Amino acid sequence: MFSITSNHLHQKLLLAVIAIGMFLDGLDGSIVTIILPQISESFGTDTGTVSWVIITYLLMMAGLILIIGKTAERGYIKRIFLLGVCVFALGSAICGISPNLEVLLGSRIIQGIGAAMIAATATLLCVTYLPKEMLGMALGTISMSVSIGVAAGPAIGGFIAQYLSWHWAFLINVPVSIIIVILALYVIPADVKRENQSFDIPGAALLFGFMASGVFVLERIPHLGISDLQIIICTGICMITLILFLLREHRCQVPLIHFRIFGAWEFTATLIAFLLFGCVYMGVLYLLPFFLQAGMGYDPVISGLYLLIPPVLTAIIGIPMGTWSDRIGRRPFAIAGSVFIIAVTGTFMLIQPITGFVPLLLGLLCMGFFWGCAGGPVASRVVETAPEGEEGTGSSLMVTAMYLGSVIGTALFATFFTMGTATNGKIAFSDLTSGIFMQGFHTAMAVGLILSVITLVLSVVVREQKNGRHSDQE
């Protein structure tokens, strides 16, 4: 059996390793976001196609985290974490020497597999080895760590894009990965193997097929058209794999997902809200570098400095907010986060380059307050509203929702941006005028505003007591 780590020093060291691992994830995501315009120009592709540099990575995470989490729960947490860091480093190295978009996308798949191993085991390490009263603070630490990585990413990525080749944005992950492996070997408790249980491999394959085909259809429709053979085939695959997955899970003795967990409506509502949080946040973050460079006319270095603002603010308030939510409950923070993300999408839906930097600064500050309020507390809320005995599954689904939301957000915002900028479904980033760009940007933000309002409704309807457990009473 796994035992809770009671030694305060060991708790801090364990959190430090988890934090560094998630820092690497945040660093990579933000560096890639800021260099997307340069990758697009380097390979002569449009903003929708280059979005797959993000999508392939996040799709691996969203599709594999639940599977990896289930495997890790059987007593392989430490080994999977260490293997994940090594795979991530390998993928980063190949990304750094990619001569074309095809090689880059393939190496991003490898990178995403490693990142999925890190992310799945990071939250599981918190749930497994740390006391429950530390959960909000621990997940707030993870949120803060990702934010610090995101904070460092734009500045580093902007410098790299301006003065070096974008390839170096991936190569810097390798030495950080080596440091993580050395520390993790020492501080993570040894694995304790549990009794072997059957694993639903067919169900896992069907779930991944559903996600991959669905995201492809969502992002490619503006480019290919709804009547294109690829879209028709992938839509059919998406529907068939979903039906087969549901049938499989219903009949399987040890399913990948016990659907009874969704019988708790509070859990379902909170999970959907968390997914939409990730969807809107990542969609906005995906388009912002293009706005800063194509709309505002900033160079990569200045753009990177502007993008420092949200994660730095999140890093400052993330842990205090998580600790505070441990005492008074998660609901106020979920509602506050919803209000802030509404302010973000509303501001960017109306912004124009001629209005200057003040609206931009307002939107960036609201982004920082949003994730600082919602990151750790809402992640904890998902786990806590899971039925008793399903906390592990709830943790895996929470992480899956975060990255699946990021995948959907990137694809969704890319889709509506493309719809707003081109009548033929495709236009190279280098050919965009400021006016055409802003049409697509505002279209995507309007969709984000609608999704943000939905998160507010879902956050309000799930009520909590001060101990963090859900309740139907105030």
Number of strands: 0
The count of helical stretches stands at: 17
Mind telling me the C-alpha Rg?
A: 21 Å
Shape: globular
Query: Main beta sheet: strand number and arrangement?
Result: none
Q: Taking all residues together, what is the mean pLDDT? A: 79
Structural class: mainly alpha
- Share of residues in strands: under 5%
Sketch the topology as an H/E string, one letter per element.
Answer: HHHHHHHHHHHHHHHHH
Poorly predicted regions: 465-474
Distance between the termini: 37 Å
Q: Helicity range of the residues?
A: over 70%
Q: What's the short version?
A:
This protein has 17 helices and no strands.
List keywords for this structure.
474 residues; mainly alpha
In words, what does this structure look like?
- The protein has helices spanning 8-43, 47-50, 52-72, 77-96, 101-129, 135-163, 168-171, 173-187, 201-224, 229-251, 265-295, 300-306, 309-328, 331-350, 357-384, 391-421, 434-461.
- It is globular and about 60 Å long.
- Helix 13 packs parallel to helix 15.
- The two termini are 37 Å apart.
- By secondary structure, the protein is an all-alpha fold.
